[in-house]
Each structure stands twice: as structure tokens, then as C-alpha cells.
Design brief:
single chain, alpha/beta, D-Maltodextrin-Binding Protein, domain 2, six-stranded mixed β-sheet, four-stranded mixed β-sheet, 16 strands, about 15% strand, globular
Length: about 425
């Protein structure tokens, strides 16, 4: 009897093993990202994805802090052990060249995925040499906020759509004079002096560039670039904008929300700061697109995308995850929870609903004519031109001298990198 029972048990185990062999194994895939604040909301999409693909795919988030994210990704150049899906930004060029990430074109074509559902500028940001390396997640834009209370106080007309730098200068000069007459202390214009919310926009609008499209040449020594930075210096010298000593010590946004600036050039990542400020809650903040310079008001368009690891053991399943977390449903959920401006156009409606004190549609509209943040994914050269811009703005040396010298130093590094 015992032998029969033992024989039966063995047979059962063999049958179970055979049955298991016929079942599909679950593909375990990982998504790596660095923002802890966004993780809980994205996890909601991951949970839904896992439920829909139960028994076939199991995705999980691998949270890596920003200060070690790129170090870990760099290590994957040799170990070939990158996460299946990863966040990507302006560093894409570096990792695409190293074949860390896999082009998505075959998947896009197979599934007939319509890329026009995303903001064009964000799609283009991840397209290198005709290959699409990522689907866009979110975006950030640059625009102008103005303090209605200050404009009303000094009897200045609000800026109007289609305004130009000349219009802005005229407005600022009128505000400057009236502030002086009244013994006020406000500045007509304030701005952050970092590249994305201010000077990179002006350089490109004026026909210059930070880095060429092929990533091999910096245009910061060009006459157009020099002129754009000189325009900023002129604003300071004519007291139309807060001086460098003030703007280098206090962020333009902080000056603005404390009632010390008439207008501020600002990025969408500060939108919640405007929304929750006292002047915002009092309904005294208006938003408008940037004034046009040399016929253009195009502004820097930043944001994140999702890439597929070239060494993923489950590329098809990883692609399914990328599609899902960049879908209208997933990105709308991010929008209504205020963690990002969706790059998916239909999902953007959820972002606008977050704001009660601002016309957030202006923030979204800036993306229509936006251009991708200019980068070649290598940052060994950037400090030379960035430092040169600050040197020019501080007027510790003439603008042209500073930029030409900084551009030459940066170009020497670029030439070495590309063996030019």
C-alpha cells in the first residue's frame, strides 16, 4: 500500500511538473526612475498594467536617486545590466551612441502607434539620426508671468499676446519711470539667470545656438548669440531689469512672488509656486507667452521620456509597459495628480484642471512652438560657455570677449571628443 501511495505521489508530481512546463513563464521587468515624489502615482499605472497582464508580465519600479542614477547607468555600459525601461532626458545622445538603449521604430511600426498624439517637440527630442529612441512622458515650458497688482498700481497696460521685445522694453521703461516717481522699490523685469528659463531662449530666438544639431559645435560665440546676451545686459544697465547682483543672489521667482517684480520669465516647474503664492491666490497673476525677439518667441521645451534597454531579456514586454505608461489614461492620471505636464496631448486637460488661480492653458500652449533643450549629452564642455554667460551678465568683462573666449574653450573640448 505504501509503495502504491508513493508511486501515486511521484506520478502526481511528474504530471504537475509537465503541466507547469506548458504554462507561460511570467516576464519580470523593471522600470528605473529617480523622482521619489512621482513614484506613488506612477506605481498606480504599474499596478493596473500588472493586473491587465497578470500571469504574463510583472513590472516593478526601481527607484534610484538622481545623484547615483547616471553613475549606475554608466556602469551598465560594461555590465550590460540596465533596467528594462528607463527614464531619459537630454543625456540620450550619449546612451544611444553607446547602444545602451534600443530604437523603438520596429515596435512603433508593428503596432502602428500614432506619434502625433504627443507634442511634436518632445517626440523630436528623442529622435536621433531618424531613429526614435523614446516615447515622451512629460514636458516643461517657459513663459512669462506678470503681477497685475503692480501694473494696476502704476497704471501700466497689461502685456498682450503677440508682444515683442520692443513692446516689453517700452512697457518696462514706463514702469521704471513711474516707480521712481512714486518712490517705489519694484523692478519692472526679473528672471532666473539659468539657461533654460532665460538666456538659451533668447540665443535661439535671435538665430544663435548653444550647440549645433549634430552636437559638435557650440554657437555661443556667434554674433547672434552675443547680441542676445547683450540685450539682457542692456536691460540691466537701463534699469529695466533687476541688476545682476540682485538676480545672482535671489531667484527671480522669489522676487516676483514677494511683489518685487512686474514680470518674470519662468518655467512650468515653478507653476505650483505661482499658484500657491499670495498674489496668485489673490488672482493677481497673469500668464502670457514670451515676447518675440527677432520674430520668434519659441522657447525651451524640456521633459522626460521612456527608453528601452538594448540588453533587456524581455524587450517585447518592456515595450508593452512603455506604451501603457505613456498612454492617455496613464498620463492623465499623472496630470490630475499634478506630478507632470503630459506630453500626450489629450491628457493635458487634466493638468489645466489642477489650477484655480492661473490660466494654465498658457503654460501648455508654450509647448506648441517650443524647441528641445539643446544638448549633445556630453557636459565636459558646457561649463566653459555657462561660466562665460555669467561673466558677461555680471559685466566683469565685455559680453563679446567673454562669450568668444568661453566658446573657444568649449570648442576645444568638443573637437577633442569628436576628433575634429
Amino acid at each position: 500500500m505504501k509503495k502504491m501511495m508513493l508511486f501515486g505521489a511521484v506520478c502526481t508530481l511528474i504530471l504537475l511538473a509537465a503541466g507547469c512546463g506548458k504554462q507561460n513563464k511570467v516576464a519580470n521587468i523593471s522600470l528605473t526612475m529617480w523622482d521619489e515624489a512621482q513614484s506613488p502615482i506612477i506605481q498606480q499605472s504599474i499596478d493596473k498594467f500588472n493586473e491587465e497582464h497578470k500571469g504574463k508580465i510583472a513590472a516593478n519600479i526601481e527607484l534610484v536617486p538622481w545623484d547615483t542614477y547616471w553613475t549606475k547607468l554608466d556602469a551598465s555600459l560594461e555590465t550590460k545590466e540596465a533596467a528594462d525601461v528607463m527614464w531619459m532626458n537630454v543625456y540620450l545622445t550619449k546612451y544611444a551612441a553607446a547602444e545602451v538603449v534600443k530604437p523603438l521604430d520596429e515596435y512603433i511600426q508593428k503596432d502602428k502607434l500614432d506619434l502625433s498624439q504627443y507634442i511634436e517637440g518632445r517626440v523630436n527630442a528623442y529622435n536621433l539620426d531618424g531613429k526614435q529612441y523614446a516615447l515622451p512622458k512629460g514636458l516643461d515650458t517657459v513663459f512669462v508671468a506678470y503681477n497685475k497688482e503692480i501694473f494696476d498700481r502704476y497704471g501700466i497696460e497689461y502685456p498682450k499676446e503677440g508682444w515683442t521685445w520692443d513692446d516689453m522694453r517700452t512697457m518696462a521703461a514706463e514702469m521704471r519711470d513711474k516707480i521712481k516717481e512714486a518712490g517705489g522699490k519694484e523692478y519692472p523685469i526679473v528672471m532666473e539667470l539659468d539657461d533654460q528659463p532665460s538666456w538659451m531662449n533668447f540665443v535661439v530666438q535671435n538665430g544663435g545656438n548653444y550647440i549645433s544639431e549634430d552636437g559638435k559645435t557650440t554657437g555661443m560665440g556667434m554674433d547672434q548669440s552675443v547680441e542676445a546676451i547683450q540685450n539682457m545686459v542692456d536691460l540691466m544697465n537701463e534699469e529695466l531689469m533687476a541688476p545682476y547682483t540682485v538676480l545672482s543672489e535671489t531667484k527671480g521667482t522669489d522676487l516676483f512672488i514677494s511683489g518685487q517684480g512686474g514680470i518674470v520669465f519662468i518655467g512650468s516647474w515653478k507653476a505650483s509656486v505661482l499658484e500657491n503664492s499670495t498674489i496668485g491666490m489673490n488672482g493677481n497673476i497673469g500668464l502670457i507667452q514670451m515676447p518675440s525677439l527677432n520674430g520668434s518667441n519659441s522657447s525651451v521645451l524640456g521633459g522626460l521620456g521612456y527608453c528601452l534597454s538594448a540588453t533587456s531579456k524581455h524587450p517585447d514586454e518592456a515595450w508593452e509597459l512603455i506604451k501603457y505608461i505613456t498612454s492617455e489614461e496613464s498620463l492623465y492620471n499623472e496630470a490630475i495628480n499634478g506630478i507632470d505636464i503630459p506630453a500626450q496631448i489629450k491628457a493635458q486637460e487634466g493638468y489645466v484642471k489642477n489650477f484655480k488661480n492661473l490660466n494654465a492653458q498658457v503654460i501648455l500652449d508654450a509647448a506648441v512652438t517650443g524647441f528641445p533643450y539643446q544638448s549633445n549629452g556630453n557636459f565636459e564642455w558646457t561649463s566653459y560657455v555657462n561660466d562665460a554667460v555669467q561673466k558677461a551678465l555680471s559685466q566683469s568683462a565685455p559680453v563679446k570677449e567673454s562669450l568668444v573666449e568661453g566658446a573657444a574653450q568649449a570648442q576645444a573640448v568638443l573637437d577633442k571628443i569628436y576628433n575634429q
